[in-house]
Amino acid sequence: MGAQNGAVTRFGDTTLNTVFITGDLQKLFEAVLRWLWQSKGGQPPPGFAILAPVWLEYFAGALLGALAHAALAYPLLIPAALMPFVLLGRPGARA
User: Fold this and answer.
1) Which contiguous run of DSSP H or E holds residue 5?
2) Where are the beta strands (DSSP E) in 1-95?
3) 38-75 pLDDT tens trace
4) Residue 11, SS3 per DSSP
5) H-run or E-run covering 14
6) How far apart are CA 48 and CA 58, in angstroms?
7) pLDDT tens across 15-36, in order?
8) Per DSSP, what are the bridge partners of residue 11?
9) Contact criterion met (CB below 8 Å) for 8 and 18
10) Between the CA atoms of 90, 83, 11 and 3, what dihedral angle is there, to the nearest 10 degrees?
11) What DSSP designation does 10 have?
12) What are phi and psi for residue 11, nearest 5 degrees?
């Protein structure tokens, strides 16, 4: 997990942790507060454009996971069934 977090952390001018997310939540709310306290009509801070969609995706994933858990007896069969298609779609994969 440490290698994953160290491998991909820079997205434009924003650092994004992919293993522990509490620091990303803090960065998002700092960007929101900076944007709110700017002059009226100002552009959002640079980190906001990366962090807001990431947190929206985290929320959507948690919501879909909770719905699948409530609706299906074996909800992890869906991602397991999709995994071969994901692996076949990567560059250099053999059929």
Assistant:
1) helix 2-7
2) 10-11, 14-15
3) 766 677 777 788 888 888 988 999 999 899 889 988 98
4) strand
5) strand 14-15
6) 15
7) 777 777 788 888 888 888 888 8
8) 14
9) yes
10) -100
11) E
12) -130, 100
